[in-house]
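Thread title: Can someone regenerate the structure for this chain?

I was given the following input by a collaborator and told the matching structure tokens would be attached. They weren't. Posting the sequence so someone can regenerate them.
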Amino acid sequence: MKQSISNDAYDALADAYAAQADTKPHNAYYERPATMSLIDEVDGRTILDAGCGPGVYSKWLLDRGAQVVAIDASERMLSHARKRTENLAVYYHANMEEPLSFLDNGSFDGILSALAVGYVRDQMALFAEFRRLLRIGGWFVFSTEHPFFSYRYFKLENYYETQDVSCIWTGFGKRVCMPSYYHSLGTICEALSKNGFVIETLMEPKPTEDFRAADLERYEKLMRFPGFMCIKAKRVA
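Best answer:
Regenerated them for you:
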């Protein structure tokens, strides 16, 4: 397996990330409530948690009666996910930049991917693979950095060009360089439409009141300009 571009960074952050997952404002009080609001009833359904990290979503899905298969490129993150879920999900060490050939065609009712598709350069190929894995009518819910935020934050010169970016993360007790890929909104939407998906919802979430209580300065920034966006798409073809 080819190593993910973010593998070293997430391995370095895994322990602190897992410890803070339930209370870190950008995750717990901003991205997660929005993403969860887009997910249909999962009781008795088979769901893929793509880029599961420390297993917060896997646990949430399991608690609601789903059968969960989860993948992540970081072994250290997977170890935390197994612990959080008491190993009740099926876990695979996998890089989403490569084919997920160990998973069968049409084997999932839904795919959830929280803040993970930005570590894949070729989203056309990734979404084609997700189409293969989903049953007709299945849903794909994902969150990612808002392209408008990324374009401004990284001071990019070409909005349309998919390109490598990186920034320093300091919020987990150490300085870590986190690489990822920038994609325009049109690139993301085209990768969905050309792979048989119809976008049902595109959400530009606002932080919750819990975020306000935890970090007023960043709350006020996010109330004026989006950091993330959340999309719900359905496989129709």
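The radius of gyration is 17 Å.
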